[in-house]
Amino acid sequence: MVTITIDGKKIEAKEGEMLLPVALDNGFDIPHLCYHEALSPYGACRLCLVEVKKGNRTKLTTSCNYPVMEGIEVITDSENIRRARKMVVELLLARSPNVPIIKKLAEKYGVTSTRFKIENEDCILCGLCERVCREIVGVSAITFMGRGDKREVGPPFKIEPEVCIGCGACVYICPTDCIKLEEKNDERTIVRWNRTLRMRRCKICGEKFAPWFQLEYFSKLTNIPKDFFEVCPNCRK
Length: 237
What we know:
Layout: E1 2-6, E2 9-13, H1 19-25, E3 49-54, E4 57-62, E5 73-75, H2 79-95, H3 100-108, H4 128-137, E6 143-145, E7 152-154, H5 169-173, E8 181-184, E9 187-190, E10 195-201, E11 208-211, H6 212-222, H7 233-236
Parallel strand pairs: 1-5
Antiparallel strand pairs: 1-2, 3-4, 3-5, 6-7, 8-9, 9-10, 10-11
Helix pairs in contact: 2-3
C-alpha cells in the first residue's frame, strides 16, 4: 500500500492500481465514458483528465490509465482541467450532438456550440464494446478499423460476424446506446453488427432465454453438460 493525496486528502491505495478507480472509490467525482471496472483501461474519451504532481513536476493526464505510486499529489478540479475537459466535450458534441449523455455533459460544462465539423455519429469510439467482447466474452467478434476520421468499430470486413454469440454484452455496456438488440419471434438480432441468431426456449416454462449459439459456446467453454443449458435461469433456481 502507498499513500497519495487527492484534492488535499490523504488516501491509501494499492501501488500500481489505476488512479481513476481509486478516486471514484473514495468519493471523488471524475467524469468518464470509456472506463469500466471490469475492463482494461483505454484512455479514449479523455474526460478523466486530472493534474498529477510528482516531485517538482506537474502534468495533465488521464486518470484511468495512470498507476498509483507513493507520494503523488492529484488535483481533480482546476481551471486547467475544466478547460481541457470543456474542449473534449466540444469535440464529443461535434461528433455526437444528439446523444443524450453527450448533451448532458455539454450542459454540465457550459458547451452550447462547437467550432468543429458536425458528424452526427452515435458511436464515440470509446472501445467498451470491443474490449468486453475480447476480454470478457472472449470471441473478438468486433474490432477497430481504419484510422483518423475513418476510424470505426465493427465486425471485420463489415460482414456478419460468425463468431458473435449474441450475448448482448456490447449492447449493455455501450454508453451512448448506439448498439441495439432486437428480439422477434424466435430470433435475436444485434442490429449494428447485423447478427441474427435463433433463440432457445426453456424446456420447463417455454420462454426464450438465450441464443442456441451462445449456449453451445458456454457449454464448450465450461464443460458443463448440455442439459444444464436447456433450462432458463429462473427455472434453474
